[in-house]
Write a structure and sequence with these properties.
Shape: globular
CATH architecture: 2-Layer Sandwich
Number of strands: 6
Strand order of the largest sheet: 2-5-1-6
Strand content: 15-25%
Helix content: 10-25%
CATH topology: Alpha-Beta Plaits
Distance between the termini: 55 Å
Number of helices: 3
Order of helices and strands: EHEEEEHEH
CATH class: Alpha Beta
Structural class: alpha+beta
Largest sheet: 4 strands, antiparallel
Number of domains: 1
Radius of gyration: 16 Å
Length: 154
Amino acid sequence: MSGDFLVESEFGYKDGVAGGNFFILAKDVMVGVKAAQLAVKAISHVPGTITPFPGGMVASGSKVGSNKYSKFLNASTNEKMCVTLKDQVDSDIRPDADGVFEIVIDGVDEESVKAAMKAGIMAACTVDGVLEISAGNFDGKLGAYIMKLHELFE
């Protein structure tokens, strides 16, 4: 085997806010990818925040629990927001959307996550073919924070 594995000998941690999110519904996958990439880039400039998934984006929405494994799986793919299943389930995806990406944001505090959500949404909306911005509403079941999208723009 080759390669090096480097890790700090000491590190700290801080309580923060996990799970700020929004969904980008786009006319097709490539428009959705472009919008998601711009959103992630904009979020990267907001201090104290990260997008924890690979490339900063999730290829389908998430939900609390699981249809089959709810005893041990706290979150899973939201089949109602999964493009490849939209013709097979009671989908929440509009008929003209064939690209859906979720952006998940973690941060040091609620205000940082809200600022990152707003920056990401504004960036995503610059892409022609973005049809709608939505969000996962977990009613506080997946965390202590509820961030309403419309309040970000008041």
